[in-house]
Write a structure and sequence with these properties.
heterodimer; A: 113 residues; mainly beta; seven-stranded mixed beta sheet; B: 118 residues; six-stranded mixed beta sheet; four-stranded antiparallel beta sheet; 0% helix; 52% strand
């Protein structure tokens, strides 16, 4: 079965650079979520989209932005990167209503040096 | 507000032992969902189970079993006859019915690191 695809798997950036993370949800899933997991931490909710519109916002810094495109894939754009942004970034998708639960991608490991 | 507490930071057992991972949640909603995820050393989050607040029936899946008790707001996870491959961080998560126009957003506990020794 198709899963949530995230790219790239690993990314190394320097401070103050920008990064773009991509997420391709499971086909027919209409909701996408982004999470940030710091070392030894639990995943923290950043932002979600339902039918290409932002539906909820969590602890996403102003330096970050995200969108969901017409093909339902989503991108998380991160600017002015800081060392503290080094984390595992997960994308998850679901069908609205939690009927199918949340399926997470394998994550993008971002390292800021 | 919602909150998930996994009081056990790390559990260490020897293979073939049974182990229970605790999860206590707080919510004012009557409609909510509970989840368990496994995060092996490779980092991905693997879905294990989803339970809605109206279904208190316990579930068994192979060596895994879950005990949902609304009276104590707990959703504990037991691994029977643990194996080295069970070594991972296990997260309990809760999502509540959204406000109008919103989505169900899972909130995770801090996770329990399970180490199974051979």
């Amino acid at each position: 079965a198709a899963g949530v695809i995230q790219s790239p798997r690993h990314l190394i950036k320097e401070k103050r650079e920008t990064a773009t993370l991509k997420c391709y949800p499971i086909p027919r899933h209409d909701t996408v979520y982004w999470y940030q997991q710091g070392p030894g931490q639990d995943p923290q909710f950043l932002i979600s989209f339902y039918e290409k519109m932002q539906s909820d916002k969590g602890s996403i810094p102003d330096r970050f932005s995200a969108q969901q495109f017409s093909d339902y894939h989503s991108e998380l754009n991160m600017s002015s990167l800081e060392l503290g942004d080094s984390a595992l970034y997960f994308c998850a998708s679901s069908l609205e209503g939690v009927g199918t639960g949340y399926t997470f991608g394998s994550g993008t490991r971002l390292t800021v040096v | 507000a919602q909150k998930v507490t996994q009081a056990q930071t790390e559990i260490s057992v020897v293979e073939k032992e049974d182990v229970t991972l605790d999860c206590v949640y707080e919510t004012r909603d009557t409609t909510y969902y509970l989840f368990w995820y496994k995060q092996p050393p490779s980092g991905e989050l693997v879905f294990l189970i989803r339970r809605n607040s109206f279904d208190e029936q316990n579930e068994i899946s192979g060596r895994y079993s879950w005990n949902f008790q609304k009276s104590t707001s707990s959703f504990n996870f037991t691994i029977t006859a643990s194996q080295v491959v069970d070594s991972a961080v296990y997260f309990c998560a809760l999502s509540e019915a959204p406000a109008s126009g919103g989505s169900y957003i899972p909130t995770f506990g801090r996770g329990t690191s399970l180490i199974v020794h051979p």
